[in-house]
Amino acid sequence: MQNLKTILLYSSALLAIGGGAHAADLPVKKAVPVEYVRVCTAYGAGFFYIPGSDTCIRLSGRARYDYLYQASKVRTGSGGDVSGYVGLLRLNLDARTQTDYGTLRAFLRLDVASRSGPFVTSASRQREGQAFPGLGADAFGRTQDFVNADKAFIQFAGLTAGRASSFFDFYAHDFELIGGTAGSDNYSTNLLAYSAVLGNGITLTASMEDPTFRRFPIFGTGAAAGAFTAAGGFAGYSNAFNPFTPSTFLAPIIVGPGTVAFVDVTQKSRLPDFVGVARIDQPWGSAQLSAAVHEINAGDAASTVAGVATATAGLGIAPTGRASSDYGFAVQGAVKVNLPFIAPGDTFYLQGAYGQGAMSYTGISNYTAPYDALAAAPVSGGSFLQYYSDAVLNPSTGKLELSTSFSTVASLLHYWSPTWRSAVFGSYAQIDYNTRGRNALGALGFGFAPSGANAANALAFATSPVLRGNNQIVTGASLIWTPVKDLDIGVEGEYIRTALNSGVTPDISKSSLRYISSQDAAQVRFRIQRDF
To answer: pTM higher than 0.90 for the full model?
Structure first.
């Protein structure tokens, strides 16, 4: 009996062991391993590996509040508005992967802003198609939402392709809040570039850039009859350069006694701008030499009269009445000098630019009208308009007369302490028009016109600001407090003086006739900005 019990116990044990071994062989569903985010140290602070890849990414952004004050001379339309406000958000994504050819990088930046007030709601941005306005009675011209794909580019093996800042630019308002000084600052354009690093901090770049965001209108008369008024306008002026009715962009050309061809002066997308840059970066700072070539062209004649095809012979235009294309250019030299012997972080910029038919590259229009405006005043209800044209369509020859412009800017940043800094800056810029184009315009209005040619009209034309050379001085200073890292609280003031290069013009801000040669403006901006 005892032996039987022993045998049964051993049998039970063996069954238990066998059953356990069988159960262990059955498939078991296991939890997927958790892949934690890893810090990427290859490209600086803030980068981490995208889970499941060897790509490092950095997320950053900005929140900003601006308040602006600028006096106005009138209280009509948007005139009389002296305050403006900005609320802005910015999101950045920077993705980098190490390859056998070097770093592959993609960078994205989105800016979205809600803006109000006459000087922060930008007609330039609406002309670019990057903003849309409020349409209410008290919002028209005063409120605006701004959306900009500011950056979206790829960098690989020396190539840069996508939406980026123009390689022509250097200072680009680095130390300014308002950004009103003269100088090129095309922070969003479409380009394809190649940069060759030669060593010792020297880089050579060739860039093919979108010309659309560099254009200013071709000036052409729009009426073969009419009279200039004391206010500087042209009664019956049909070439209004209205962005919503491009069919009105017509300029008459005299093609023979009593015959006229009406030419479309809108520029067509034909050739990119070609930019070349030589740059050096050293411990003492940086220096850059930039050059650009910019095509200026016009469309075909919108309408003609009998005899035009033969009358255009020898006038430099095609039988259809199209003006021959011309090519503007710009050159720029700039230097940035580090001044640690004064205080850590102190820096000085000096930059100068010269251009023909390439006004955007010299940036004379930067404060008053940054993009594609025929004429504008530096302040609401200003005393006279500045005229901005890369070229004038000469109505007597049918040729494009290029404008000439130049600018110089200097800027100094000084740290009073690690948390307090100031910038002082100033610029001078000037534009000149070839007198042949303006004289031909006068001849068309008063010699060719069937009526309106009298001494009073001739005087009004002579003193009109239309195609008059002008200049602008911008000076300013700022004080910025950084109580904690990446938080700026600051204020900046600017003084702007705009003047004719010679002569006088009527003050259109006054009800009585008064001639002046210059006008003044001032602006103050307060900002709170948090970067992360």
So the answer is: no
